[in-house]
Amino acid sequence: ASTPSPSADLLGLRATPATASGAPASTGNLLVDVFSDSPSTTAGLASGAEENFLRFVCKNNGVLLENQLLQIGVKSEFRQNLGRMYLFYGNKTSVQFQSFTPTVSYPGDLQNQLNIQTKAVEPLVEGGAQVQQVLNIECLSDFTEAPLINIKFRYGGTLQNLTLKLPITVNKFFQATEMQSQDFFQRWKQLSLPQQEAQKIFKANHLMDSEVTKAKLLGFGSALLEKVDPNPDNYVGAGIIQTKALQVGCLLRLEPNAQAQMYRLTLRTSKESVSKHLCELLSQQF
Protein backbone atom coordinates (compact mmCIF):
# COMPACT_ATOMS: atom_id res chain seq x y z
CA ALA A 1 0.00 0.00 0.00
CA SER A 2 1.17 3.51 -0.66
CA THR A 3 2.60 5.51 2.21
CA PRO A 4 1.34 9.11 2.00
CA SER A 5 3.05 11.78 4.07
CA PRO A 6 2.05 11.82 7.75
CA SER A 7 0.47 15.25 7.29
CA ALA A 8 -2.26 13.80 5.06
CA ASP A 9 -4.74 16.64 5.62
CA LEU A 10 -5.41 15.76 9.23
CA LEU A 11 -6.34 19.17 10.47
CA GLY A 12 -7.39 21.03 7.33
CA LEU A 13 -10.36 19.53 5.55
CA ARG A 14 -9.70 18.70 1.94
CA ALA A 15 -11.09 21.10 -0.63
CA THR A 16 -12.26 18.31 -2.91
CA PRO A 17 -14.10 15.25 -1.56
CA ALA A 18 -12.20 12.01 -2.05
CA THR A 19 -13.77 9.73 -4.59
CA ALA A 20 -12.98 6.50 -2.74
CA SER A 21 -16.42 6.42 -1.18
CA GLY A 22 -18.32 9.20 -2.83
CA ALA A 23 -21.85 8.27 -1.81
CA PRO A 24 -22.92 9.30 1.69
CA ALA A 25 -23.27 6.30 3.95
CA SER A 26 -26.95 6.61 4.74
CA THR A 27 -28.01 2.98 4.59
CA GLY A 28 -28.70 1.23 7.86
CA ASN A 29 -27.06 -2.05 6.82
CA LEU A 30 -23.53 -0.71 7.37
CA LEU A 31 -23.74 -1.61 11.05
CA VAL A 32 -21.67 -4.66 11.81
CA ASP A 33 -23.46 -7.25 13.89
CA VAL A 34 -20.97 -7.54 16.74
CA PHE A 35 -22.76 -10.60 18.10
CA SER A 36 -22.44 -12.65 14.93
CA ASP A 37 -20.35 -15.83 14.93
CA SER A 38 -17.98 -14.53 12.28
CA PRO A 39 -17.01 -11.02 13.36
CA SER A 40 -13.86 -11.08 11.22
CA THR A 41 -15.86 -10.79 7.99
CA THR A 42 -15.55 -7.37 6.44
CA ALA A 43 -19.16 -7.34 5.24
CA GLY A 44 -20.86 -4.31 6.72
CA LEU A 45 -17.74 -2.15 6.84
CA ALA A 46 -17.94 1.28 5.20
CA SER A 47 -16.79 1.45 1.58
CA GLY A 48 -12.97 1.43 1.31
CA ALA A 49 -12.56 0.68 5.03
CA GLU A 50 -10.49 -2.47 4.57
CA GLU A 51 -8.02 -0.82 2.14
CA ASN A 52 -7.66 2.21 4.42
CA PHE A 53 -7.11 -0.04 7.44
CA LEU A 54 -4.27 -1.89 5.67
CA ARG A 55 -2.58 1.44 4.84
CA PHE A 56 -2.09 2.01 8.57
CA VAL A 57 -0.21 -1.23 9.24
CA CYS A 58 3.12 0.54 8.55
CA LYS A 59 2.17 4.09 9.55
CA ASN A 60 0.39 5.82 12.42
CA ASN A 61 -1.00 9.02 10.90
CA GLY A 62 -3.36 9.72 8.02
CA VAL A 63 -6.96 9.79 6.82
CA LEU A 64 -8.95 6.71 7.86
CA LEU A 65 -12.18 7.61 6.06
CA GLU A 66 -13.43 10.32 3.77
CA ASN A 67 -16.82 10.58 2.13
CA GLN A 68 -19.03 13.51 1.13
CA LEU A 69 -20.05 14.24 4.71
CA LEU A 70 -17.23 13.24 6.97
CA GLN A 71 -13.46 13.04 7.17
CA ILE A 72 -11.83 10.96 9.93
CA GLY A 73 -8.14 11.59 10.57
CA VAL A 74 -5.90 9.53 12.85
CA LYS A 75 -2.74 10.33 14.79
CA SER A 76 -1.37 7.66 17.09
CA GLU A 77 1.68 6.77 19.14
CA PHE A 78 2.65 3.50 20.77
CA ARG A 79 5.21 2.63 23.40
CA GLN A 80 5.80 -0.88 24.77
CA ASN A 81 2.30 -2.33 25.36
CA LEU A 82 0.52 1.06 25.52
CA GLY A 83 -0.84 3.37 22.86
CA ARG A 84 -2.74 6.60 22.44
CA MET A 85 -4.85 7.39 19.40
CA TYR A 86 -6.38 10.72 18.44
CA LEU A 87 -9.37 10.56 16.10
CA PHE A 88 -10.35 13.79 14.31
CA TYR A 89 -13.93 13.87 13.04
CA GLY A 90 -14.41 16.63 10.47
CA ASN A 91 -17.85 17.76 9.30
CA LYS A 92 -17.40 18.58 5.61
CA THR A 93 -20.89 20.00 5.20
CA SER A 94 -22.44 23.33 6.21
CA VAL A 95 -25.09 21.55 8.31
CA GLN A 96 -24.51 20.40 11.90
CA PHE A 97 -24.30 16.71 12.80
CA GLN A 98 -26.58 15.83 15.71
CA SER A 99 -26.42 12.93 18.20
CA PHE A 100 -22.86 12.21 17.01
CA THR A 101 -21.92 8.95 18.76
CA PRO A 102 -18.78 6.86 18.09
CA THR A 103 -18.78 3.45 19.85
CA VAL A 104 -15.87 0.99 20.03
CA SER A 105 -16.62 -2.75 19.91
CA TYR A 106 -14.47 -5.87 20.21
CA PRO A 107 -15.02 -8.77 17.78
CA GLY A 108 -14.34 -12.31 18.95
CA ASP A 109 -12.12 -12.62 22.01
CA LEU A 110 -10.59 -9.17 21.58
CA GLN A 111 -12.04 -7.77 24.81
CA ASN A 112 -9.62 -10.01 26.75
CA GLN A 113 -6.67 -8.98 24.56
CA LEU A 114 -7.04 -5.20 24.17
CA ASN A 115 -8.29 -2.60 26.60
CA ILE A 116 -9.44 0.67 24.99
CA GLN A 117 -10.64 3.61 27.06
CA THR A 118 -12.46 6.28 25.10
CA LYS A 119 -13.42 9.80 26.05
CA ALA A 120 -16.92 10.87 25.03
CA VAL A 121 -17.34 13.29 22.10
CA GLU A 122 -19.64 16.31 21.98
CA PRO A 123 -22.91 15.13 20.36
CA LEU A 124 -23.14 18.27 18.15
CA VAL A 125 -20.58 18.80 15.39
CA GLU A 126 -21.12 22.14 13.67
CA GLY A 127 -20.84 22.50 9.89
CA GLY A 128 -17.18 22.86 8.88
CA ALA A 129 -16.00 22.01 12.42
CA GLN A 130 -13.78 19.23 13.67
CA VAL A 131 -13.94 17.39 17.00
CA GLN A 132 -11.25 15.23 18.55
CA GLN A 133 -11.56 11.97 20.46
CA VAL A 134 -8.75 10.38 22.50
CA LEU A 135 -8.41 6.60 22.85
CA ASN A 136 -6.04 5.09 25.42
CA ILE A 137 -5.00 1.58 24.44
CA GLU A 138 -3.45 -1.24 26.43
CA CYS A 139 -2.34 -4.49 24.80
CA LEU A 140 -3.06 -7.29 27.28
CA SER A 141 -2.01 -10.20 25.06
CA ASP A 142 -1.36 -10.85 21.36
CA PHE A 143 -4.41 -10.48 19.09
CA THR A 144 -5.44 -10.91 15.45
CA GLU A 145 -8.81 -9.16 15.19
CA ALA A 146 -9.08 -5.38 14.88
CA PRO A 147 -11.41 -3.37 17.11
CA LEU A 148 -14.35 -1.73 15.34
CA ILE A 149 -15.69 1.79 15.68
CA ASN A 150 -19.32 2.44 14.82
CA ILE A 151 -20.27 6.06 14.15
CA LYS A 152 -23.89 7.18 14.23
CA PHE A 153 -25.16 10.72 13.70
CA ARG A 154 -28.08 12.66 12.24
CA TYR A 155 -27.46 14.75 9.16
CA GLY A 156 -30.42 16.77 7.88
CA GLY A 157 -32.88 14.43 9.60
CA THR A 158 -31.34 11.23 8.20
CA LEU A 159 -29.54 8.77 10.48
CA GLN A 160 -26.03 8.02 9.24
CA ASN A 161 -24.46 4.79 10.41
CA LEU A 162 -21.02 3.51 9.46
CA THR A 163 -18.52 1.05 10.87
CA LEU A 164 -14.73 1.05 10.46
CA LYS A 165 -11.82 -1.02 11.66
CA LEU A 166 -9.62 0.94 14.06
CA PRO A 167 -6.00 0.81 12.85
CA ILE A 168 -4.66 -1.06 15.87
CA THR A 169 -2.64 -4.12 14.86
CA VAL A 170 -0.34 -6.28 16.97
CA ASN A 171 2.81 -4.92 15.27
CA LYS A 172 2.09 -1.49 16.82
CA PHE A 173 3.45 -2.97 20.05
CA PHE A 174 6.81 -3.91 18.50
CA GLN A 175 9.96 -2.87 20.26
CA ALA A 176 12.72 -2.81 17.64
CA THR A 177 15.72 -4.96 18.62
CA GLU A 178 19.25 -4.44 17.28
CA MET A 179 21.49 -7.49 17.11
CA GLN A 180 24.66 -8.73 15.43
CA SER A 181 24.68 -11.29 12.61
CA GLN A 182 25.88 -14.10 14.89
CA ASP A 183 23.07 -13.47 17.44
CA PHE A 184 20.44 -13.26 14.72
CA PHE A 185 21.30 -16.63 13.18
CA GLN A 186 21.60 -18.24 16.61
CA ARG A 187 18.07 -17.09 17.48
CA TRP A 188 16.83 -18.00 14.00
CA LYS A 189 17.98 -21.60 14.60
CA GLN A 190 16.39 -21.62 18.07
CA LEU A 191 13.00 -20.82 16.48
CA SER A 192 13.14 -23.80 14.14
CA LEU A 193 9.93 -25.63 15.09
CA PRO A 194 7.56 -25.78 12.09
CA GLN A 195 4.74 -23.96 13.95
CA GLN A 196 7.09 -21.09 14.87
CA GLU A 197 7.62 -20.20 11.22
CA ALA A 198 5.20 -18.60 8.77
CA GLN A 199 6.21 -18.08 5.17
CA LYS A 200 4.55 -16.50 2.18
CA ILE A 201 5.64 -16.19 -1.44
CA PHE A 202 3.74 -13.47 -3.26
CA LYS A 203 3.79 -11.20 -6.29
CA ALA A 204 4.82 -7.56 -5.89
CA ASN A 205 1.80 -5.25 -6.06
CA HIS A 206 3.93 -2.10 -6.04
CA LEU A 207 7.19 -0.92 -7.54
CA MET A 208 10.09 -2.81 -5.94
CA ASP A 209 11.92 0.18 -4.48
CA SER A 210 14.49 -0.55 -1.74
CA GLU A 211 14.01 2.78 0.06
CA VAL A 212 10.21 2.33 0.17
CA THR A 213 10.66 -1.26 1.38
CA LYS A 214 13.02 -0.13 4.17
CA ALA A 215 10.58 2.60 5.24
CA LYS A 216 7.72 0.10 5.39
CA LEU A 217 9.71 -2.44 7.42
CA LEU A 218 10.73 0.30 9.88
CA GLY A 219 7.12 1.51 9.95
CA PHE A 220 6.04 -2.06 10.67
CA GLY A 221 8.06 -1.74 13.87
CA SER A 222 11.05 -4.06 13.55
CA ALA A 223 14.69 -2.99 13.57
CA LEU A 224 16.37 -3.34 10.16
CA LEU A 225 19.60 -5.26 10.61
CA GLU A 226 22.35 -4.26 8.18
CA LYS A 227 25.01 -6.70 6.96
CA VAL A 228 23.32 -9.69 8.60
CA ASP A 229 22.05 -11.58 5.55
CA PRO A 230 24.84 -12.83 3.23
CA ASN A 231 22.67 -11.62 0.31
CA PRO A 232 22.72 -7.78 0.36
CA ASP A 233 19.37 -7.64 -1.50
CA ASN A 234 17.54 -9.29 1.39
CA TYR A 235 16.02 -7.47 4.36
CA VAL A 236 16.32 -8.80 7.87
CA GLY A 237 14.51 -7.47 10.94
CA ALA A 238 14.05 -8.19 14.64
CA GLY A 239 11.77 -7.01 17.39
CA ILE A 240 9.78 -7.96 20.47
CA ILE A 241 5.98 -7.69 20.65
CA GLN A 242 5.23 -6.18 24.06
CA THR A 243 1.98 -7.24 25.74
CA LYS A 244 0.99 -7.14 29.40
CA ALA A 245 0.84 -10.95 29.60
CA LEU A 246 3.93 -11.90 27.60
CA GLN A 247 6.68 -10.77 25.25
CA VAL A 248 7.02 -12.41 21.83
CA GLY A 249 10.43 -12.34 20.12
CA CYS A 250 10.12 -11.91 16.34
CA LEU A 251 12.61 -12.32 13.49
CA LEU A 252 11.78 -11.59 9.87
CA ARG A 253 13.41 -11.98 6.49
CA LEU A 254 12.16 -10.50 3.22
CA GLU A 255 13.74 -11.79 0.01
CA PRO A 256 12.89 -9.82 -3.14
CA ASN A 257 13.29 -11.31 -6.60
CA ALA A 258 13.29 -8.32 -8.95
CA GLN A 259 13.43 -10.45 -12.09
CA ALA A 260 10.31 -12.45 -11.19
CA GLN A 261 8.68 -9.47 -9.40
CA MET A 262 8.11 -11.72 -6.39
CA TYR A 263 8.88 -11.70 -2.67
CA ARG A 264 9.42 -14.43 -0.13
CA LEU A 265 8.61 -13.36 3.44
CA THR A 266 9.57 -15.52 6.42
CA LEU A 267 8.55 -14.79 10.02
CA ARG A 268 9.84 -16.73 12.99
CA THR A 269 8.42 -15.95 16.43
CA SER A 270 8.00 -17.79 19.71
CA LYS A 271 4.22 -18.02 19.18
CA GLU A 272 2.48 -19.66 16.20
CA SER A 273 -0.48 -17.27 16.01
CA VAL A 274 1.87 -14.25 16.02
CA SER A 275 4.06 -15.67 13.21
CA LYS A 276 1.01 -16.27 11.02
CA HIS A 277 -0.65 -12.94 11.69
CA LEU A 278 2.49 -10.81 11.23
CA CYS A 279 3.24 -12.65 7.99
CA GLU A 280 -0.31 -11.98 6.77
CA LEU A 281 -0.21 -8.28 7.70
CA LEU A 282 3.23 -7.55 6.27
CA SER A 283 2.79 -9.49 3.02
CA GLN A 284 -0.11 -7.18 2.11
CA GLN A 285 2.19 -4.12 2.20
CA PHE A 286 4.29 -4.90 -0.88
CATH class of the largest domain: Mainly Beta
Please state the structural category: mainly beta
Helical residue percent band: 10-25%
CATH fold naming of the largest domain: Immunoglobulin-like
Q: What's the total number of strands?
A: 14
How do the helices and strands follow one another from N- to C-terminus? HEEEEEEEEEHEHEEEEH
Subcellular location: Endomembrane system
Keywords: Membrane, Protein transport, Transport
Pfam family, one: Alpha_adaptin_C
Membrane topology: Peripheral membrane protein
Identify the notable features of this structure and list them briefly:
Immunoglobulin-like, 14 strands, disordered N terminus, TATA-Binding Protein, 286 residues, mainly beta
